Amino acid sequence: MRYTYRHGIQKVKNKFTQLSLVFLLAVTGISGAAPLFGSHHASALTPHISYTDVALTDSELGNWSPDRTTPSGGFSSVTFEGQTAAELRVDNTHASADPGFYRTEGIQRTIPASDAIKANLYVDGSWSGKSVRAGLWGVAHNASSEISAYPIVEFTTDNAGYTGWRTWDGVNGGWTNLSIPYTSDAWSTIEIVHNNGSTKFNVYINGALVATNTGGDSTNLNAVILNSYNNATNQVADNYAAHWSDLGYGNVTGASVSACATTSSVFTTDLSTWDRTETRSAGHNVIVPTGLHIYTDDASSNAKAAGYYATNFALSTLGDKTIAQSIDYQATTGTAPGLQLVTDFDNDGTPDGILVGESVYGNTWWLSNSASQFVKDNSPNTGGGYGSNYFGTPDQWLSSFPD
């Protein structure tokens, strides 16, 4: 006999690394047979942020105002490496006479209240051997229209021997070096996104979530700043330019999990195709003529039967049915097994936690306690009443982690 697991067939870029169907989670004396299935809608992801481009022409840059100090070497629109870019030039022979604060040179402009800002920075190979700092800054406001945070992403070659990306926590203060690779002589895309659920700022570089920083009572972003730093060496050889392109501001679009429309089936007659390493000595999974028989022997800590099936799909295509509707299960004793989704929350190819769905909680999925801290920090809900302190509906998890 055979049992089935069904899932949508369309491939998408942002996806789960694995779906696990867990037949039993430390429940005693449960017995039943289940043709297993889950499903999700087969459709492409809708872009989760709708950006408005900001033209970086000379006429547009004329509307920007100095931030702290006007760039010492001037700024203008140029065509650079195939893109229209804002070029901010640092002249070390014309640094501000005021040290520290006013050695940061830049330009800023206001934007409509937004959830996100983005820009491309060209990481120039000519920066090697020089003291360079080039950063994208956001200016956040709270509900009272007061400045509440300055989320910053910066590329530096001048941080106690460190070269690479770093972020500034706009509320708690302090720089954090990011242990991620960078590519010289290439454009990199930076995004700063205010997470309305957690009120934190998520930082993305080239599409990967690299940092989550506190946002205090921030509600949106109202201005963008492009900044560099002048080390006042008085040496022409230390001069440099930062190039920015593809600047934009935007808002997170409504994210929701769609109902299932198209499914495909996977038929299993050999449990060797499932990962059963989480099954303990008093738990059993046996294929029988009516499906899969799962049971435990006693009430010990070894009374657990589990099976994981590898798959790969986006959270947005999970489907919108409740857990009770997602598994065909006949229990002799006990309740229906829980379903688990081993999830890559930041889309970097590595699982970061497990979402657990159990029929007693309807369509609310709770997060495993072993999950990465950044997932807990961005959980749509916290508190008791579920399998852990971190929980939400699929739509809520998708809003917190649209990628």
List the helices and strands and how they pair.
Blueprint: E1 3-7, E2 19-21, E3 31-33, E4 49-53, H1 58-61, E5 65-68, E6 75-80, E7 83-90, E8 104-114, E9 116-123, E10 133-142, E11 147-149, E12 152-159, E13 162-168, E14 175-177, E15 186-194, E16 201-205, E17 208-213, E18 218-229, E19 240-252, E20 264-268, E21 283-288, E22 291-296, E23 307-309, E24 330-333, E25 339-343, E26 353-357, E27 365-367, H2 373-377, E28 381-382, E29 390-392, H3 394-400
Antiparallel strand pairs: 1-20, 2-23, 2-25, 3-22, 3-24, 4-19, 5-8, 6-7, 7-19, 8-18, 9-15, 9-19, 10-11, 10-12, 10-18, 12-13, 13-14, 15-16, 16-17, 21-22, 25-26, 26-27, 27-29, 28-29
Features:
single chain, 403 residues, mainly beta, 29 strands, disordered N terminus
The helix fraction, in percent, is under 10%
Shape, please?
Answer: elongated
Low-confidence stretches: 1-31, 33-47
The amount of beta strand, in percent, is: 35-45%
Mean pLDDT: 83
How large is the count of helical segments?
Answer: 3
Any overview of this molecule?
This protein is mainly beta and 403 residues long. Helices cover 4% and strands 42% of the residues. It contains three helices and 29 strands. The chain is elongated and about 80 Å long.
